[in-house]
Amino acid sequence: NKFVYSFHEGSKEMKSLLGGKGANLAEMTNIGLPVPPGFTITTKACINFYDEGKTLWPSLIDEIKLHLAEVEKTLNKRFSDEENPLLVSVRSGAVFSMPGMMDTILNLGLNDKAVKGLAKSTGNERFAYDSYRRFIQMFSDVAMEIPKVRFESLLEEMKENKGVHNDTDLNSEDLKALVEMYKKVYFEEKHEEFPQDPMKQLELAIKAVFESWNNPRAMIYRKLNDIPHDLGTAVNVQSMVFGNMGDKSGTGVAFTRNPADGENKLFGEFLINAQGEDVVAGIRTPNEISELKDIMPEVYSQFVDATKKLEHHYKDMQDIEFTIENERLFLLQTRAGKRTAHAAINVAVDLVDENLISKEEAIMRIEPNQLDQLLHPMFEPKALADAQIIAKGLPASPGAASGKIYFHADDVVAAKARGEKSILVRQETSPEDIEGMVAAEGILTARGGMTSHAAVVARGMGKCCVAGCSEIRVDETSKIIKVKNEIIKEGEFISLDGSAGTVYRGEIIKIQPELSGNFEKFMTWVDEFRRLKVRTNADTPKDAAQAVVFGAEGIGLCRTEHMFFDEKRIPAVRRMIVSTTLEERKKALDELLPMQRKDFYEIYEAMGERPVTVRLLDPPLHEFLPHGDEDIKSLAESMNIAFEDLKDRIEDLAEFNPMLGHRGCRLAVTYPEIYRMQTRAIIEAALDIKKSGMESILPEIMIPLIGDVVELKYVKKEIEEEIQLVFDERNDKVNYLIGTMIEVPRAAITADEIATEAEFFSFGTNDLTQMGYGFSRDDAGKFLSDYESKGIFEKSPFEVLDQKGIGKLMEIAVDLGKKTRANIKLGICGEHGGEPSSVEFCHRLGLDYVSCSPYRVPIARLAAAQAVI
Ligand code: ADP
Ligand code: MG
Ligand code: MG
User: Active site at which residues (predicted)?
Assistant: First the structure.
């Protein structure tokens, strides 16, 4: 029942118990890096804390006191000492790093006595009172919920009265006076004196950190990042070192490589004579890390050595927090650095080339969904050159974004709900802005450096961000940006180039990026490992070609209905639907045939030797018809029939529940000639392309919505007859496959029978989920969010495949299908085919391929490789 570990007792493997920060502080201690001594109160203690009704129980307090005594002994300092007082920081540290989410208190232990001791032991009275006023504010804010502004306004007032700009310009008398004012504020707010007993301060602080685990910002962050709510946070109590002791002291943050592009070069910032969050909060403009070399060469080279040691030890890019106290370096934190997808790929490939990690490890390091960032459009160069530059800021997180500007997170969220693209513009962001940052296309801040809140969070989300754009004045109240003589108002368009840090007026057109270099190298490794093939869902030659660029190995689903909506075709489609005789219908279909044939020919062409699965018409015919009286009238005129007749026909076709209605193969039972026309187009196009030299063409004809083998037999017979007709007419042949979607639960559980007729199965998991769960896809949006917020579902089953239930139906179908036809080809073409956890499931099921939209192809490839490793 140990709840407290000294840093020298822990290790990086103990993350779930000590939290990320604690485990890494322990690890750094044990590999001989300079870490101020301290201890970690475990995540288990946090969970216990909630079980105990949010109190710290006596034996825990004893354990804390014991470890505190050890620190006192090591440093030869004591709480409240008038000669040489011990001060500590109280730092939260969850298992998964949650930037800015939890609160840290510095300089704890200061009181009226200790401040004198600190002045004495350091010979620096100004510094001592500066630390005290910082402590009172932080403690009051974090642990006692007294608004920060109450203190900040006093500080501002003091600076104004003194006619100075920076807090470093205040002298010790000023700070002493401030401390007295701060204590008064505390008394006004809490109706008791500022706590003077360090042990009481410590207990309150620990409680506050435990309680901050459940503050709304932390809850939102966990929800956004799928972090469980029951992990708890650890608390680190660490002896203080001081970056605010004068010109030989400072504090900073550095990445061992560039988190935007991965370049192998130290990247970071520091501030001389500053403490804690000063760098991150953007109080003063920080210096670039390389400048430390000129100011303190010795310390700089020590720091560089430490970063190298850490990177080698962790075998990954590190994000390091450090403090310098009178030219002595201390490390305060290390963790794997958050990075853009672009940087993640470059770092992973470089680490393999540097022999630090294996290809497998590199593959496992990239979160598949992150690749999305790399595939997305960038500004068209010419449009960019013509655009008006408004200002330049820091290139905080790469990407291209255009949108209307909004100044508050709520407004961005509302704009998104209206379907608008927007840019969140803030003086600087804070954790309260998270939801707005998620909803925005990009983020622009006027203050803050490369490691400011906006920059760190945006890079983590892969969202375009320009930070610290000091040329602009952001007025959040009047909702305007002022630049030089110009004003940009809320709702006007701007564009951001996050890689250059440039802000443009107006909207700029975007184009596809080229994928090359390390991305291609990485993806070849991915392809070496995966077994699953990855196909794409594409209905046009353009989409097909894009998917091939992204590595698609075929088309798993070519929907034919979208082709029918084409302006030139829809009249023929409608005539086909409303015709009352077979002759009329065939006439309309004959008009459509050459267009369909051209569609397929061009798609085969775009795909080259790769297989193409074409699904025959699926949606209810009603969807193709006009609905308003005006539209019906003009259609009736163009078709030369009576308005009333047409209206009757349209009403006849209306269904109460179209998803379960006259669609898919059921259409072909009533009107076999529709599938016959499509089959003819597929086969004729294949014969044409075969003639042009593509001998290996192998069209795969897919029949939707089969539930019973008898249905399949009927439709297949019609199709095969038509194929034979074409072969006879052309006196030529091609190989082809006829298969079915498995999307009706009855088909899944009678798959052994279905497989007697079907040469392949493709799981249509959208419909299979709809019918398996009985959730209407068109209506479920209304209530599934309640399922998610009430914890019944973690994710909508339409987004992430329900492996247990719907997955079970797939498993049954795979087993039964193979029983009848051992070599049956198996794939999936629902939305889930591009969702990483579902791809992994398909790998385990032994499917041959997954099929997904073109932009998800690289994601599916990576997920498929990770499934093997
Ligand atoms: P976060 O999780 O928000 O990064 P930290 O616990 O890392 O919070 O604390 C923020 C900053 O406070 C650190 O980067 C460091 O500069 C400062 N800090 C924390 N503990 C100490 C300490 N013991 N001595 C000096 N500075 C500290
Ligand atoms: Mg913080
Ligand atoms: Mg930190």
Answer: 453, 829
